[in-house]
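Action item from last week, closing it out:
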Amino acid sequence: MDDDRTLQANVEAELAFEPSVDAAHIGVTARSGVVTLSGFVNSFAARAAAERAAGRVRGVRAIAEEIEVRLPQRPKHADDEIADRAVRLLAWDIEVPEDRIRVKVEHGIVTLSGEVAFQFQRAAAEADMRRLGGVRRVVNLIRLLPIAADADVVRQKIESALERTAALEAEGVRVEVVGGHVTLRGRIRSWWERMAAEQAAWAAPGVSQVTNELGIEP
């Protein structure tokens, strides 16, 4: 019980320390290393920042994110206006391949489809949509193009990336590759390390799916 209270207090302190998060409206509970975030924020970016902040705290083994996004009151944006700005924003983003992504907007819900080569391109397109005013939700249906790659080469690239990651003790991570499917196993020290390992796996060419089975040391 004392450990739970200490972890809760540490997460609350980290949220208060994070400048991009208004912690006044976020509740924190902790039980056996599982932290639940509740309450509300005024943007998708603030919700993601709150989750990252909680993940940085030592002792966090998992995060249940139940934060509601309440967009500030503003004039309603027509779907065609959102779609037009979405297309222009994607065209300006150098991380997003031109003419590879389609946008559909209905009642403020943006649906992305198409095909890209890398996960970071898929994530960049979704992040662009979350910055647009009037967007209620983003549905990301963008697929990753299959890339023929030798499994041993992919595994070696991921292992090298893990070793270069300053926020991660790579010795505790095992990498298995079958086709474009990467599975991460082993034990690491924090939720932050778990996410860093997953990002490193997604960055390798030819990866179409990542299963993160890394456990966090108590």
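Closing note: The domain at 2-69 is CATH 3.30.1340.30 (Histidine-containing Protein; Chain: A;).
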